[in-house]
Design goal:
single chain, 128 residues, mainly alpha, 2 domains, 2 strands, globular, DUF3572 domain-containing protein
Length: 128
């Protein structure tokens, strides 16, 4: 196959563990092959779970906020080795953004540099 079917919005991911073994995301492969009954991937589940809060907080900019969170998920993995952002960090990002996407970008950068600084900002915003 030269590429995913038209309309495909996902990806096929592989994970290589410390022993060099590679696992294929079979659910992603099923979607890539056109199996519409395949369950959503963890990435899709996180995006769906965050969609309502993004819409409430960012309105018409919610797709961009969801994309930002997906990017930060990937960067978080590279920085801290965790597969996804902890829910408290996601909450801190929403709280510190004040509904402004540009501020959320800056706070996401802060979280990746040192999440404790983000937490202090969020705690201060919560107490106001």
């Amino acid at each position: 196959m030269s590429g995913p079917p038209s309309g495909f919005g996902g990806s096929i991911s592989t994970v290589t563990d410390d022993s060099g073994e590679t696992d294929i995301d079979l659910e992603g492969l099923a979607r890539w092959l056109g199996d519409d009954d395949a369950p959503p991937s963890p990435k899709e589940q996180r995006r769906s779970a965050r969609a309502t809060r993004c819409a409430e907080t960012f309105g018409s900019q919610s797709p961009a906020a969801l994309d930002l969170l997906a990017i930060v998920d990937l960067a978080w993995h590279d920085c801290y080795g965790d597969g996804e952002l902890p829910s408290q960090v996601v909450d801190d990002l929403f709280v510190t953004s004040g509904g402004d996407l540009e501020t959320m970008v800056h706070m996401a950068s802060l979280a990746l540099t040192d999440w404790r600084d983000l937490r202090m900002n969020a705690d201060r915003a919560r107490s106001e």
